[in-house]
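Record Putative DNA glycosylase, 264 aa.
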Amino acid sequence: MPEGLEAEIWRVAASPLVGRTVSDVWVDERVASVGLRDAVVGAEIAGVDRVGKVLVVEMQTSTGRTKLGLHFGMTGRLVVDGDAAIERLEYASGADRPSWDRLRLWTERDHRPADVPSLRLNDPRRLGRISLDADLTQLGPDALTLTSAELRRRLSGRRVAIKTALLDQSVVAGLGNLCVDEVLWTAGIAPHRPSDRLDAAEVTAIARACRRRLPVMLRRGGSTMGELTPELRRVAGDCPLDGTPLTRSKVGGRTTVWCPHHQL
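=>
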């Protein structure tokens, strides 16, 4: 599913919309908050932010501010002014069918044909959602800026596998299956290790891997773009670090690729 990296790329892509006024909205009511259209038509886009995997569009209305939360589910992607910042997600089709649109938002300053929305959320599986003033306070610290102290606090008392813990958005916001595998591979930590058995140095290694590896992947500008490539994940090829055959297993029900030699 789209992770914090993809949401960050979309945040940057949507930032030029700030200052525009929403002129019209169409939304798939099956995945949206009731009354969403009435709440945002006529509002000025005051900001675009990201909280974990969620893109937050802040709106200034006549009665105050409201926030539009875009949750991308498993296969959602964002198209801004007719352009997709990410052409194809690593784990989804590159097709773009109008019937898959869940949100179309037009602004008054559009200089494109009237049928081209300023903002479009396209999601073939319809597992994402569009919410008004979603409560995001339960999310943990963001993976891109995660500190060792924050991670130690969030892992305290948790006995689940470290991979399962990192996928929990209340522990760390923004990590999904592929990024967790990449972070643990970088940190040299086996994904099935119990969270409460990690020592301080290992927790520090995980937090450092988030801060160092994820920005590298972000700069590559696409979907995931880690060292554990789709080809390596599919066939459990050789570890890019030490050449050991990778192991492909399940941790917490999630497909997991890791190196049995250097991930201890």
